[in-house]
């Protein structure tokens, strides 16, 4: 969930960033400064920096509004709100996980301290709701309910993640459940939020939510593949990073639960105390592959994409929206794999 | 903001706790366990404990609903939501401030760790909005907007508090502004939220908000007096605790800014490195008093209570509600002083 997709969905990029900046400008100075750094708009000293982040989620919200026949601005409060919740979760997750780096830069908590970073996360999630609940926002209450439910799921997913770190072994079902909650819930919300803001009929929002839920799991599966076999230029992290940190990712969990000799070899290797040297990390990657973890993950990602696209067939959509959503679904699993 | 008022407002106590427990039961197990401990329902090992906390804020929400002619249950979602936001802020504040004790017990983060405690706070603030935005809640969107705005202010107040800790001197105006944001905003929200849920006319919610804002500042002024001169049985903290921790409380700030010889003496004493011995703490308390900090705080609290009560005169209220709100306003400043 840590890499950003360079997505083909450039929908409304020119709308999203100004709206996001305008929302963040509503915060008081100390919180605004941390947020601006975390969003990549400034460097550690507050000097302007070139923004990073591809803003996949807000683009999906705008597409979702177009799916419901809304104009370009109809989904904008939702686009801003979803991105604020996403950034809140990254800010707090980095603290909880002790991750010192985010997108090639020091994580916000290492620059501003843990207390201020906690508080900035709190401010962002609150701001997200303020944006959605602004008076006169059509469908605002429905959308706010959807976003709040997704945020609750995201938090429950992170709680599972924290719990799994303390456990030696987790099942593949548990790992998938965690990914559904931690990654897919907010993506599913992004895919339907724009339609909710346009007060679309329930069958459309339901189909879009289902599309987004599958897309989200496919996204995480691909992210986990990149975490082992992706190049550092794409992931923004060192090569083999997820094995180095012994992350219980989907390919690793699939391999460990495959019941083969290589599963046992992988378990032994990852169970060793201390940091694993580079050649052992490479051996671990080979074991994940030979135990079937890579093939399972790739097949599951493809199945999720197919399922996501099938949900779109259930509803009427403008042609250009359908093809953009279709392209996005394919793109999510094919980036650099 | 850390002591709980044993308030005379027993309004709906039998309604509030079951509703609060039902809301917390919606959380997944790990978060539910931390929340149950933090609320005082269980001990460190999850065994039932006698609940503490007087739940002033939810009682105010129910009163506020009655002020608008609502039945006993009309304000309940708001009562639960306000308490959840209050507890979220306490959970996160304890981490940020490094406070190891809350209500005579180890703070949640010392028992469950910082990551889980951060996450539990996130879960509580999200749950608060879920409760308010539930389908069919009359006035839910208005109320959710009010609560979100109050939460944003509370967060901004905590940001000011963190900033002030790094500064040598703050003005009395800055200190009052911080108290208004950190303590009074949520109390003001509590005093109007029930009326919002009853879709009361704006003049009534405005008057109730203004009453609550004054009450909130009076509450903080009194809390700060207790933090120096209160008995440990009332405050749940060691005697002279706010001087020991060199908190820039309202009486201390008033004394430091009085420009007297005692102000300078107090500044010198509090500026010393290391922990202050008991006799120096007692001397500091005397200096706060002789520099006029105690008298100013008491007078300001009385003025805020008078102002709070005056706001009630602007509107029509059921007699019993008016007298309960009146009694509460007087009570807030007279508890153990």
From TrEMBL, chains A, B:
PROSITE patterns: POLYPRENYL_SYNTHASE_1, POLYPRENYL_SYNTHASE_2. Pfam families: polyprenyl_synt. Keywords: Magnesium, Metal-binding, Transferase. Gene3D superfamilies: Farnesyl Diphosphate Synthase (1.10.600.10). The keyword Transferase applies. Belongs to the FPP/GGPP synthase family. This is Polyprenyl synthetase family protein. It comes from Actinomadura yumaensis.
